[in-house]
User: Fold this.
Amino acid sequence: MKLVIKFLVICSLLISSVQAVTFDVLVLPTDLVNSKENYYGFEEVSEIIAEDIINDFNSSNGKIQSPELYEVRNKMTQDAALKTLITNTLKKYDRDSVDYKALKEIGKNFSCKSVLLVSSSVITNKNSLKRGLWEVLEVSTAFNLEYPYRLDTSMVLIDTVNDIVMWSNRYSTKIGTNTNTFEAKNYAQANEILSKVRLYSEKIAAKSASQNIILRFYPKTLRTINKEFDNSDGGALKFDRTIPQQPAKNESPDEEFFGDMIYGI
Assistant:
């Protein structure tokens, strides 16, 4: 009888230890080191999305923990070398380059073995120049530009121990009215666009990313976002496709799609 009790106690301890495993992920938006220079002082898109992802992680019942952005900034102000390292690394990612060596060092500073990079930019069909949301707003407002704009968000999750990409995905949405007008000549107009960006983050980009990343660490614990948004309802910002995008029918139709994974974990 005593042996049975000991066996049950050991099993319960093993099960509880497995359930208690927590993964630490450092989330870094490329706008982290930028001052809010837009004329309304609003947060940049990447920062908004990063904050929503961090909130999702820290509300995941202990599955994933992530330092708050204010904690990251505080540590940067106390360590000039770390601030320079993070600044240069984020600039490289904005240019579609990942510095694995730097991310390994950054992760160690925050006791995180995984780093999620988040970048957002606005482009037009007229040119491929990447601009910040509020920068485009100022240009459009000043010159009454009427080009179709798209807000693009890219994310990549790096395993800093093995220097591999665990997961990556891109999200995109149209910005502007049905007549391609994109301006904010007063606070009310700018705040309306900000609220739509927050909706894009909360309901699409951040929520889909955080759930898919949790699935990388805890497979099959939840289902991914699969929600259609109607294009016909107008509005200044529309979600015009299912995110994450589903694979073609001839590409393993029975398997769920959790975003692009370049290398497995």
